[in-house]
Design goal:
75 residues; 43% helix
């Protein structure tokens, strides 16, 4: 991940100084919850399966389909 960020920053803004940081998953107690919520929302949008989403629906404040205006498929 660090190398990918470094490559993009070098291409886009080569004079900017930056630092990337990451922590272990064990250090963030809510990481699994956030991951589950993102997965549930993605499953709803990509497959039309709302079973997992329905469990977290009341916790989701907003959603926005960032790809709705384009015609290119991203994977």
């Amino acid at each position: 991940m660090h190398d990918a960020v470094k490559d993009v920053v070098r291409q886009v803004t080569p004079t900017v100084h930056y630092h990337t940081a990451s922590w272990s998953a064990q250090s963030e107690p809510c990481l699994q919850v956030a991951d589950y919520c993102c997965w549930a929302i993605a499953r709803k949008w990509e497959r039309g399966d709302c079973s997992a989403y329905d469990l977290v629906r009341d916790k989701v404040q907003s959603e926005f389909d960032v790809w709705r205006r384009g015609t290119m498929l991203y994977y």
